[in-house]
Write a structure and sequence with these properties.
The complex is a heterodimer of chains A (398) and B (427).
Chain A (H helix, E strand, L loop, with lengths): L2 H5 L14 H27 L1 H6 L7 H21 L10 H30 L7 H18 L4 H30 L3 H19 L36 H19 L1 H11 L1 H6 L4 H25 L15 H11 L4 H25 L5 H14 L1 H7 L9
Helix pairs in contact in A: 2-4, 2-15, 4-14, 5-9, 5-12, 5-13, 5-14, 6-7, 6-8, 6-12, 6-13, 7-8, 7-12, 9-10, 9-14, 10-12, 13-14
Chain B lengths: L22 H19 L6 E5 L12 E4 H24 L6 H19 L4 E3 H27 L7 H19 L2 H25 L4 H24 L3 H4 L7 E3 L9 H6 E3 H19 L1 H11 L1 H6 L4 H28 L10 H11 L4 H24 L5 H20 L16
Parallel strand pairs in B: 1-3
Antiparallel strand pairs in B: 1-2, 4-5
Helix pairs in contact in B: 1-2, 1-3, 1-16, 2-3, 4-5, 4-10, 4-13, 4-14, 4-15, 5-6, 5-7, 5-13, 5-14, 6-7, 6-13, 10-11, 10-13, 11-13, 14-15, 15-16
The chains are: A mainly alpha (398), B mainly alpha (427).
Chain lengths: 398, 427
């Protein structure tokens, strides 16, 4: 009856009710969106190639020059993208051949965790642009515990992980509390907290407690070996315990949302705060709670950034990269479900891992990855457009 | 029962009194005491702070104003506390704190801070304000874009992308043609194109507006960075060396002390900004077009009933907003450094978004909020030159902290247009 009308109210993506017959259609839309994104990006890659551009003026007299130059540059770029993210067929050892995929998973870890930090608030009708700041706080605390305390192996790691989670929770909790208590818009508050976190990190890195001895640049000492996330496939692969933690975190969020009372309250608040209040749900508590849990996820992502070794286990100003913002794309691509976030995180991790290989191999700027990922999300979000382009019929409504 | 959410009925409010809210007086009181203790009583009684009110281009110079730092901080902090007391009285009688009281509080607080932070030094007030206007330019353009879109019921998260696209295109076209006007035009067209994507997906295909906005930002960032690395940086001379706008002094007006150099000795884009703000304000609140836009944003079904094509109004407003933000993007290149740089808008679009929400979805309110951000930004730059007792990172943090305080403590629950973010699907 009112599913479609209900859907128009929430501003955040909410998974559609599963339709068996629409299942194929859904997969098709995803695949075609991916293809469309790659095709459009191919034109950009071709245009950016100087060989193609120098052949372009003669396009009408000698079209094959342009086309072959374009084909060459695009196919080389996409080959590098594939061999850098999935499997490298030209490698001599099995280890080298499968390394790309483990690198993709390694890169995906922080994206999944931060993606959960955006997806969960989406389900409660909140837009957490603040994953970046929460992530930075998580990295600061996890890193500080990691490089300045001395504890035996599992304890040190555990304390650092918990510290990172707690820091992320607190930072997001500020936004949640302000939203719940004063009605301050969470978008503003989280954006402001991002900037405050950035400058807080900059400031801390000027202090002696955070400075690497003998260095003048803003860089911390490396995390002690006892505080690092252990590698799970042997020392040859960077893939580490963080990825398992990310999967566990996704499972936890799924359980929270789908199987627990608290999660039901979160979703109810997201669907209709007034109705939730009328039904006796403490909306203020739910809003704060959502942000606290989301912050813990972002804190874990920050922890993974520092304890996972992506920056040689040291805290610097670039510790968070753009992960907090990419996380928004991950959450959207994953339609705010935990499983979706995991899959989207892996896809984005693969694009990133492949993108750096591509940049090194063919000189195609890695920024094309941003174009590909945003086009995919854009097309997936508009199935009617994709159907129109490929002249598909809409699935039969049940 | 079908939940009709596209047009929630206006809540029927019986004659009730406002609840007593101590939020504003408490926030003001805490900040006032902080100013009194830190800026005032902990200040150095031996030093004086000099406020330099001239910049050199005016017809006649005002003398510098020198005040004893500590005493001035104490006096202004006490003023803050008086306003806080007034706010308390208003709150007890269940009345809102008027905007001028908040303004007075803010002014006194800033003066108290300035007198403390620049103790023993000379603070170039006119230069500070002149820079404030300049740094607010992209924020104001972006916020007007937000107002235009959101008043019609379309959430515009894509301001950042529109600014970036404007900056990129104006740099490229400006370099190729060596013409500022064509560069500006290109910025407008770039903003328009980005907005067109937003409009097609959000208005025509009913895709969630927040999603489209976020994705567009990433898309524009990807596109501009890609072409910057692949094309612009390969041949800077041809692609990335646009002309830069010069200051234009308006005769007579620019000779007025303080106000003259601040408002009337600026570059072309600042004057365009004045025009834009005036047009948006008058347009939204004084014309038939504005009434329709606001109707579409507040109650699209009612607007539809009286014959307004809701989605066409929205589509057009999104395009208008995009043009405004695109023009603002030209500030980053033609309006300041000239050359385009990767991700050079650096989150200013989101600050503009915050300014719009902070300014309660009104064109003038957004200008006020944007000026506050610009002021804090410029103040930080000025203070880093004259030297301060606080680490620069905290100065950089200050505008964001201030916004947190204001949003949480004073502005309170800001209300978006009722149909903001809700696609209108005609049934």
């Amino acid at each position: 009856m009112s599913t479609t009308e209900l859907k128009t109210e929430v501003t955040a993506p909410v998974p559609e009710p599963r339709r068996r017959r629409a299942w194929v259609d859904q997969v098709l839309i995803y695949l075609l969106s991916f293809v469309l994104a790659l095709v459009i990006s191919a034109f950009l890659i071709a245009f950016a190639d100087p060989d193609v551009r120098s052949a372009l003026p003669y396009f009408f007299s000698q079209p094959m020059d342009t086309i072959s130059a374009a084909w060459e540059s695009v196919s080389e770029a996409y080959k590098a993208l594939f061999s850098g993210s999935i499997i490298n067929f030209s490698a001599y050892t099995v280890t080298d051949a499968i390394r790309p995929f483990t690198e993709s998973l390694y890169t995906a870890t922080s994206l999944i965790l931060a993606g959960l930090a955006v997806a969960l608030p989406f389900r409660a009708g909140l837009f957490n642009i603040g994953a970046q700041g929460q992530l930075i706080l998580g990295a600061i605390v996890a890193g500080y515990i990691g490089f300045s305390w001395a504890l035996p192996f599992p304890v040190h790691l555990l304390v650092a992980i918990l510290g990172g989670m707690l820091a992320g929770s607190l930072w997001a909790g500020i936004a949640g509390l302000l939203k719940a208590r004063t009605g301050a818009h969470e978008v503003i508050v989280t954006i402001m907290l991002n900037w405050i976190a950035i400058y807080l990190l900059q400031y801390l890195l000027t202090l002696d407690a955070f400075q690497r001895p003998g260095r003048d640049d803003p860089l911390s000492p490396p995390v002690a070996a006892e505080g690092r996330l252990p590698r799970i496939l042997g020392e040859d692969f960077r893939l580490n315990l963080g990825f398992i933690l990310a999967l566990l975190a996704a499972w936890f969020i799924w359980w929270l949302l789908e199987r627990s009372t608290i999660g039901f309250e979160f979703r109810a608040v997201g669907a209709n705060p007034s109705a939730a209040r009328t039904a006796g749900i403490n909306v203020r508590r739910a809003v704060t709670g959502v942000m606290v849990v989301a912050g813990a996820m972002a804190g874990l992502a920050g922890m993974n950034q520092i304890l996972g070794g992506s920056t040689e286990y040291a805290l610097g100003n670039g510790i968070a990269g753009d992960i907090g913002f990419d996380a928004i794309t991950v959450a959207l691509l994953g339609r705010s479900t935990p499983l979706g976030v995991v899959l989207a995180g892996i896809l984005m991790g693969a694009l990133r891992a492949g993108g750096s290989t591509m940049q090194a191999a063919t000189g195609t700027p890695i920024d094309i990855v941003l174009v590909v990922q945003s086009l995919i999300v854009l097309f997936i979000a508009a199935p009617p457009l994709v159907r129109k382009i490929f002249r598909l019929r809409a699935p039969k409504p049940e | 029962m079908a939940l009709d959410t596209s047009a929630p009925p206006a809540p029927v409010e019986p004659e009730i009194q406002l609840p007593i809210s101590y939020k504003a007086p408490i926030t003001m009181g805490v900040l006032g005491v902080f100013a009194l203790v830190v800026f005032g009583l902990m200040g150095d009684p031996a030093k004086t702070t000099t406020f330099d009110l001239t910049i050199g281009t005016e017809a006649f110079a005002l003398p510098d104003v020198a005040v004893p730092s500590m005493a001035f901080s104490v006096v202004t902090a006490v003023l803050c506390l008086i306003v806080a007391g007034y706010a308390l009285v208003r709150a007890r009688s269940r009345r809102r704190v008027p905007w001028w009281a908040i303004l007075a509080f803010g002014l006194a607080f800033i003066l108290s801070f300035l007198s403390w932070v620049a103790a023993g030094k000379t603070l170039p007030v006119t230069g500070l304000l002149q820079g404030t206007i300049l740094l607010s330019v992209p924020l104001i353009f972006g916020a007007q874009s937000g107002v235009l879109c959101e008043r019609a019921g379309v959430v515009n998260i894509a301001i950042e992308g529109q600014l970036l696209a404007g900056a990129f295109m104006s740099a490229v076209v400006g370099s190729l043609t060596n013409n500022i006007w064509l560069g500006l035009l290109a910025a407008v067209v770039a903003g328009l194109l980005v907005a067109w994507v937003l409009a097609v997906f959000a208005v025509t295909y009913f895709v969630d507006q927040v999603i489209v906005g976020v994705v567009i930002n990433t898309l524009v960032l990807g596109l501009t960075s890609f072409f910057y690395t692949a094309v612009l940086s390969q041949n800077v001379e041809t692609w990335n060396s646009p002309p830069v706008m010069q200051r234009i002094a308006i005769p007579v007006l620019s000779d007025i002390p303080i106000l003259g150099p601040v408002l009337f000795n600026q570059s072309l884009i600042v004057y365009l900004m004045y025009v834009l703000v005036a047009v948006v304000h008058v347009g939204l609140f004084r014309t038939r077009w504005g009434l329709r836009v606001r109707a579409v944003g507040e109650h699209p079904k009612a607007a539809d009933t009286v014959g307004i094509d809701v989605n066409r109004v929205r589509f057009r407003n999104v395009l208008l907003g995009g043009m405004a933000a695109g023009l603002g993007g030209a500030f980053f290149t033609l309006g300041s450094v000239g050359a385009f740089g990767k991700a050079m808008t650096a989150g200013k679009g989101f600050i503009a978004l915050a300014a719009m929400i902070f300014g309660r979805w009104s064109p003038l309110g957004a200008v006020g909020a944007a000026l506050l951000f610009g002021f804090a930004d410029q103040l930080q730059q000025v203070l880093s030159i004259i030297g301060t007792p606080i680490p620069s990172q905290f100065m950089l943090m200050a505008p964001y902290l201030a916004t947190l305080f204001v949003v949480a403590g004073l502005a309170g629950r800001s209300r978006a247009p009722a149909a903001d973010g809700v696609p209108y699907i005609k049934s």
